[in-house]
């Protein structure tokens, strides 16, 4: 009779490999960021950190524009947003935007090069709206972005479309599932929630709609307490996304001894609160209105436009581009008020 030991060993090795497939290889770096005994520690993988560093390098700034000169609106036609810039400032920003968004296609990505005033290319209409959105973020949402702010490069990183974007997931009943409605969860391989069984589209209810983000009810009795485990799973799906997007643990925003208590939470929780509402506004006020001009191959399975979430800007680090501000080189993107003040000083 043949020995089954080799086969047993093979199965054991395979089982061990599957068990460890979701684990990260040590050594890890652990930094305490709260009181002892609360488990408030940030765990970092040096190998992941090294790969993220390469993706978060800030490009070299262009040479400053020559001072003075006529306004762009006095020289060029159909300059609707940046007409107050001088011609030199305007041309410099156009070169920068080309490098940030369309380094391969050049000016032709947004412009009819036979008539630069023409708005027939949808990409030009989108770019104009995105400039307004960037100015809005930098002027209105300092509660989230601080003085660091954002530019086109923060999201695009040299790509026509940001690498990190999302579409609304089709309802399970629309997908022709043999096993019925999966209630929007238990689908393997969804990076949005760390490949877990959590609801895999936490973005539509929280970053497009304004559903309540809550885990525990505030009362013990059913009356007035509409919180449930099901709702908690959706909230945890969003938290999983935020944790992965920023490369941080739950303790970055929460105190483990009192997760729901704002008074005991780190200040980052307030910053995140504003960030959620900022993203929701950007999607609804600036991005969704552009749906009708998008080509069909840019739309998602439900016909929606690609939208932004935390990963769009952060891309794995707690501060996009490690907190390096590009606004000092491009104050024209800091917002209309800042722009007007800067122009008065010239």
The CATH superfamily of the largest domain is identified as Photosynthetic Reaction Center, subunit C, domain 2
What's the level 1 CATH class of the largest domain? Mainly Alpha
The proportion of residues in beta strands is under 5%
Largest sheet: 2 strands, antiparallel
| Element string (H = helix, E = strand) | HEEHHHHHHHHHHH
Instruction: Tell me the strand order in the biggest sheet.
Output: 1-2
Helicity level = 25-40%
- How many individual helices? 12
Quick one: how many beta strands?
A: 2
Radius of gyration: 24 Å
Alpha-beta classification: mainly alpha
State the end-to-end distance. 93 Å
The CATH topology of the largest domain comes to: Photosynthetic Reaction Center, subunit C, domain 2
The general outline is globular
Total of domains? 2
CATH architecture of the largest domain: Orthogonal Bundle
Mean pLDDT: 86
- Low-pLDDT ranges: none
